[in-house]
Sequence to fold (227 residues):
Amino acid sequence: AQSVAQPEDQVNVAEGNPLTVKCTYSVSGNPYLFWYVQYPNRGLQFLLKYITGDNLVKGSYGFEAEFNKSQTSFHLKKPSALVSDSALYFCAVRDENYGQNFVFGPGTRLSVLP
Amino acid sequence: EPEVTQTPSHQVTQMGQEVILRCVPISNHLYFYWYRQILGQKVEFLVSFYNNEISEKSEIFDDQFSVERPDGSNFTLKIRSTKLEDSAMYFCASSEFLGLDRFFGPGTRLTVL
Fold:
């Protein structure tokens, strides 16, 4: 069965600095990987996905993520953080061998300090 | 840009009552999903729906839960007899293709008293 870990509950970064939100996964087959962001009292917004192809995936709002198969990781990155990036970030995985279900990680709260 | 909508945004109910949460998926999407997020916890899959039947469901989705697509636009989640532990944010999602992108609605916050 698939699983997702986000080892950090909270990430703090100063505005203008690069940010990284970590995600590792476990699947039996090939993974489909996703990042979603949740702003307060809002739904989940899709940021980016990795299905196949280039390991570096670019998404919305200047975010990108790098798929690393050997480390089973899919860390979310942004070169220069904005205060408005402060939100809850969820990594999700779907295992190609296990149906339709997405499994979400527990979430990482990102705080960008001015 | 098309989006998934959900109503109501907040539903308060008494324990044991039935509730129906409504969703309007993106119009050309064929796959529909319900997820829930208990306050402070991770997002959990409930059920997926395709071609007018459940295609997959989790252990959470027991006999108290049901889903329906009563017409060409709405997708509903019914909880027959709510329990305190059903209090959560419920997200509807839809996708055009099998199993890939999910487009999520803003959620319905269900509070069971």
